[in-house]
Amino acid sequence: MTGKRPTIDDVARVSGVARVTVSRVLNGGPNVRDEVRTRVMRAIEQLDYKVNPQARSLAGGASRLLAFVFASDLENDPNSYYESALELGALRACLTLGYQVLVQNVPQQTPDREKRVLDLITSQRCEGLILSPPYSDDVSLIQAALAQGCKVVTVSPGGPGRGIVDGVGVDDEAGGYDMACELLSLGHRRFGFIAGLEGHLSADRRMKGFERALAEQGLGDDAWIMARGDFTFRSGTHLAPGLLDHPLSPSALVCANDDMAAGALSAAHARGLSIPRDLSITGFDDAPVAAIVWPPLTTVHQPVKVLGQRAVEMLVARLTGANTASEPVFQQLDHAVVRRQTTAAQ
Questions:
Q1: At 291, is the secondary structure helix, strand, or coil?
Q2: DSSP class of residue 300?
Q3: Could you tell me if residue 116 is left (phi over 0), alpha (psi between -120 and 50 degrees) or otherwise beta?
Q4: What single-letter DSSP state applies at residue 161?
Q5: For residues 281 and 255, is the Cβ–Cβ distance under 8 A?
Q6: 252: Cβ contacts below 8 Å, ≥ 6 apart
Q7: Most CB atoms closer than 10 Å: which of 31, 77, 117, 242?
Q8: Cβ distance 335 to 171 under 8 Å?
Q9: How far is the first Cα of the chain from the last one, in angstroms, to the nearest whole number?
Q10: What are the pLDDT digits (tens) for 269-319?
């Protein structure tokens, strides 16, 4: 070992690609095949290559600081996995690309939420902004940030946020549809649905997909009942009993995320129900809790860490000029139903 720090040319040599390709990967540029991106990232890890953020900042005169905004109300329990996984993915990408990320929680109920975000951009000299749901669909906020000269990328926009700026997410409606089809194939025809917060459009799309699958089987509004939670374990425990006591007597509870599903599972255990013999329960996200509760939770996997990583890469690509596309780009990542032990035939 000579002690010499690895260079970008070393990364190019080990990964077997051109120097410009390594640069494109480091800057989150487009038109890089996943297989090539993986080879470059493995070479970076193997060589322990680090971008020098101080040098790049001096060269460009920029802050190299990104802001990642979440809508959690700190008076309530956060959706711990979703936010922490997004943050971890973003941090890993920033480490590779030579940027820093500032994570900020802005409760969506506060009337000055837009001002808080815009003040954050100016006071911290943030070059770019990443918005998570439901801010990823706040058109007014997105346009105000753009008016300040700040680049914006959205995570899991549910509708209005798409087409304005670059974004990344999974097909939430397809995920809800696929989970409903899974339960329908098991013979379930009576459902309870624990939805997300009002205005959380990506979660509402999961419910829309669920409803579409039921309609295709000739099942209408009389086949399911709904209650709105806030994505926390506690809301799952509070809402599940009311759904189970409803005259419909659902045979399956579908939850818009895993934390609420884990809460519903706890409430079912407290009633002495045998899962999945007496009741099937499903979640969404494939958070770590889904694999450690008993029984392990059937859920929809979405690559949350990769969402955070890709959001940073897309933002940096715009900041560095690696992506000069005139139209906003939306990257759709794959989802999958993960069958575990909380679902069974009816």
A1: helix
A2: E
A3: alpha
A4: T
A5: yes
A6: 183, 188, 190, 191, 192, 279, 280, 281, 282, 343, 346
A7: 117
A8: yes
A9: 63
A10: 999 999 999 999 999 999 999 999 999 999 999 999 999 999 999 999 999
